[in-house]
Amino acid sequence: MSEAAQADQETTAIREAHRFDEKRLEAYCQANVEGFGGELEVRQFEGGQSNPTFLLITTGSGGGKRYVLRKKPPGQLLASAHQVDREYRVMKALSKTDVPVPHMYALCEDESVIGTSFYVMEYLAGRVFRESIMPDESEAERRAVYASLAENLAKLHKVDYQKVGLGDFGRPGNYFERQIGRWIKQYRGAQTTDVPAMEKLIDYLPKHIPDEPSVTIAHGDYRLGNTMFHATEPRMIAVLDWELCTIGHPLADVAYACMYDLLGIAGGAEPVDRTKTPGVPTEEEFVADYCRHAGRDSIPDWNFYLAFSMFRLASISQGVYKRGIDGNASSERAKTLGDACKNLSEHAWQIIQRN
């Protein structure tokens, strides 16, 4: 789950490892969050593998509102991970565009308030589709939702990042070279065992980067489960979970969305059976839909982008697993990801061998 999947979804009491001084938070919000009033009740969303996410409910006189808080997890962290300030900054910048994002209220980098940096944003009531096949929806609804997923990704990639104030948000150019280097480093920092397929990818990917110079805002984790749709319409109302966003390459986002939602690879999911889920597009249909909105004819070197996406997610999964066994992950499910790195990297190597 991401950015709290901000509907009335499962919340729990704050987990012991994530407790903080709620009165200090209440005082901060009273002073810094527009319209905040009343007494504060805090619940924790069950998801949010990376950055713990909380529902803030105001009650009593002046209350009656809801907000969402995202914070860094406690404990020793990888230096380049969990940068909640970047999430806040990119969503605030995109509020000036036609990319749907929640309203940002406040960013707090004073760790004396609740122990880590955090930000407060708008609570949205809508639908987050946790299953890519959308089993409870009609064929027409599935088709329309995925069409919106492709269209809004193209909208993001059309944003002029310089004009919205993100000119220094990342280093333009050499995106895949930098990203491959980053995820190798992250993987090495979280490695718990030898994974032969990861070693093959670490050798192969830097040597086979396509000559495709596009530079855009890249979300980094764009998939159906990180978006929110209107409660009754197949209309996207928010793109969520921007932790991995940077100035990068648009095709990394396209490949990641296909890998996660349409190929049944991420998390060990079964391949999508479209005879049972009509309306869910094929990989080719989704890519064609994206290209139509983005003004592209096609995507050469497609297998490289897919393999890179799997390698990247393998590295991320290993980091989540390592935090789980070290005791500072934001969800207990992190400990179950021990095989994810191996499975994803083996799939990636199979994709490479298709070339």
How many structural domains?
2
CATH architecture of the largest domain: Alpha-Beta Complex
Number of strand elements: 10
The DSSP helix count reads 9
The secondary structure category is alpha+beta
Helix/strand order, N-terminal first: EHEEEHEEHHHEEEEHHHH
Question: What is the top-level CATH class of the largest domain?
Answer: Alpha Beta
Question: What helical percentage do the residues reach?
Answer: 25-40%
Distance between the termini: 34 Å
CATH superfamily of the largest domain: Aminoglycoside phosphotransferase (APH), C-terminal lobe
Walkthrough of the structure:
This protein is of the alpha+beta class and 355 residues long. It has 2 domains: 3-122, Phosphorylase Kinase, domain 1 (2-Layer Sandwich), CATH 3.30.200; 139-353, Aminoglycoside phosphotransferase (APH), C-terminal lobe (Aminoglycoside 3'-phosphotransferase, Chain: A, domain 2). Helices cover 37% and strands 13% of the residues. It is built from 9 helices and 10 strands. The chain has a 6-stranded antiparallel β-sheet, sandwiched between helices. Helix 6 (250-262) crosses helix 8 and helix 8 runs antiparallel to helix 9 (340-353). The radius of gyration is 20 Å and the shape is globular. The two termini are 34 Å apart. Mean pLDDT is 90; it is low at 1-8.
